[in-house]
From TrEMBL:
Compartments, record wording: Cytoplasm
Biological role: Involved in peptide bond synthesis. Stimulates efficient translation and peptide-bond synthesis on native or reconstituted 70S ribosomes in vitro. Probably functions indirectly by altering the affinity of the ribosome for aminoacyl-tRNA, thus increasing their reactivity as acceptors for peptidyl transferase.
Pathway(s) it belongs to: Protein biosynthesis; polypeptide chain elongation
Top-rank lineage group of the source organism: Bacteria
Protein name (database record): Elongation factor P
GO MF term set: translation elongation factor activity
Domain Translation elongation factor P/YeiP central as annotated: residue spans: 67-122
Length: 188
């Protein structure tokens, strides 16, 4: 059994007969009253995100997990197929278990959290950023760069990202996976 001082991003816990992954947390010590921990948790089975507050010292049931590297193979309906890079076994996961499925291209290597009790995959952690090619965007208007203006662009996975006006079709851009935002243009 763990308690609230062990809460960290990525921790998997059992809560209300389900397994949740902590995505955000904040330790709060108000001037009056006891301390508490405010958390944002994502269900690894349904993908539902809930906010919860634990009082300080509250006991939580930690789920032991292992991490393995998997390569994304292909998508089939709501299922995403992955292959273990060490022993080549394949698994399939529901779209709800993925954090940013719209930014994943075939061949991408991701980290999969696996429950050690029953060897079931819990969730997929994407790399911090991915490099994708812009397949469609409107041309930027010359001279319209005085402000931090952006325009929508479609990348090779089909996701839409707001990019600066100087980005053109065929450019490769780095996208932050956690927020799904443009980071920089990648030169080759």
């Amino acid at each position: 059994m763990a308690n609230t001082s062990d809460i960290r991003n990525g921790l998997c816990i059992r809560y209300n007969h389900d397994i949740f992954k902590i995505t955000e947390f904040l330790h709060v010590k108000p001037g009056k009253g006891p301390a508490f921990v405010r958390t944002k948790m994502k269900s690894v089975t349904t993908g539902k995100v809930i906010d919860n507050t634990f009082s300080a010292g509250h006991k939580i049931e930690e789920v032991r997990v292992e991490t393995h590297k998997f390569q994304f193979l292909y998508q089939e309906g709501e299922f995403y197929h992955f292959m273990n890079t060490e022993d080549y076994t394949q698994i399939r996961l529901l779209e709800a278990a993925l954090d940013a499925p719209q930014l994943m291209k075939e061949g991408e290597v991701v980290t999969v959290l696996i429950n050690t009790e029953d060897n079931s995959p819990l969730s997929v952690d994407m790399p911090a950023s991915v490099v994708l090619e812009v397949t469609h965007t409107e041309p930027g208007v010359k001279g319209n760069t005085a402000t931090n203006a952006t325009k929508p662009a479609t990348v090779e996975t089909g996701a839409e990202v707001n990019v600066p006006l100087f980005i053109n079709e065929g450019d490769k851009i780095k996208i932050e996976t956690e927020k799904g935002t443009y980071k920089e243009r990648v030169k080759e």
